[in-house]
């Protein structure tokens, strides 16, 4: 298992944007989405600053966020990527298993990927994620190229921090109904 200081602040920008968006959706009565904390055990503390400087993860977490959007169960993970190639090792097998089980219970699972260099977000549908995951498991490419993604699911943060992912849940639902 990794340790706290080996992961740095990776993804903190995206997490702040998602948390702000979730608060906004809650205020408007549109959704209740909560951040799932990752359980850690502190190993070393900085007594002067009262901060954890080294810790280990007690167990694997499932996804970053879980909740409901107007009666629909929703779970998602938020990933940040600098390059135009998203490595699939950023998605873990236990997350795939959880999201698969969540979908089987009629929930909606997805991944938000923030391409920080482009300042673009991508809503990756569960169906699309599984297709890329299976390709890698079958010996194919172990990453996802930007060009492979569905252009309908790209979004830009609004006002620099607001992520309109509810619009993309609606599009996801429409495509599920068509199938």
TrEMBL record:
Described function: Endonuclease that resolves Holliday junction intermediates in genetic recombination. Cleaves mobile four-strand junctions by introducing symmetrical nicks in paired strands. Promotes annealing of linear ssDNA with homologous dsDNA. Required for DNA repair, homologous recombination and chromosome segregation.
One of the GO biological process terms: chromosome segregation
Family label: Belongs to the RecU family.
InterPro entries associated with the record: Resolv_RecU (IPR004612), Restrct_endonuc-II-like (IPR011335), tRNA_endonuc-like_dom_sf (IPR011856)
Cofactor note: Binds 1 Mg(2+) ion per subunit.
Organism: Dorea formicigenerans
Claim: Iron is one of the keywords in the record: no
UniProt keywords, alphabetically: Cytoplasm, DNA damage, DNA recombination, DNA repair, Endonuclease, Hydrolase, Magnesium, Metal-binding, Nuclease
Site feature (Transition state stabilizer) residues: 79
Entry's localization field: Cytoplasm
Protein name listed in UniProt: Holliday junction resolvase RecU
């Amino acid at each position: 298992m990794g340790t706290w200081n080996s992961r740095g602040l990776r993804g903190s920008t995206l997490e702040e944007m998602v948390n702000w968006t979730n608060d906004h959706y809650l205020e408007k009565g549109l959704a209740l989405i909560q951040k799932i904390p990752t359980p850690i055990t502190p190993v070393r503390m900085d007594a002067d600053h009262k901060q954890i400087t080294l810790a280990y993860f007690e167990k694997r977490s499932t996804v970053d966020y879980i909740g409901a959007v107007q009666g629909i169960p929703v779970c998602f993970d938020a990933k940040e990527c600098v390059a135009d190639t998203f490595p699939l090792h950023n998605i873990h097998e236990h997350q795939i298993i959880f999201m698969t089980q969540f979908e089987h219970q009629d929930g909606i699972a997805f991944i938000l990927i923030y391409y920080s260099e482009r300042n673009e977000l991508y809503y990756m549908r569960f169906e699309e994620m599984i297709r890329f995951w299976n390709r890698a498991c079958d010996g194919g490419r172990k990453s996802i190229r930007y060009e492979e993604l569905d252009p309908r699911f790209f979004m830009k943060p609004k006002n620099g921090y607001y992520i309109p992912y509810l619009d993309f849940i609606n599009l996801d639902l429409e495509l599920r109904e068509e199938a």
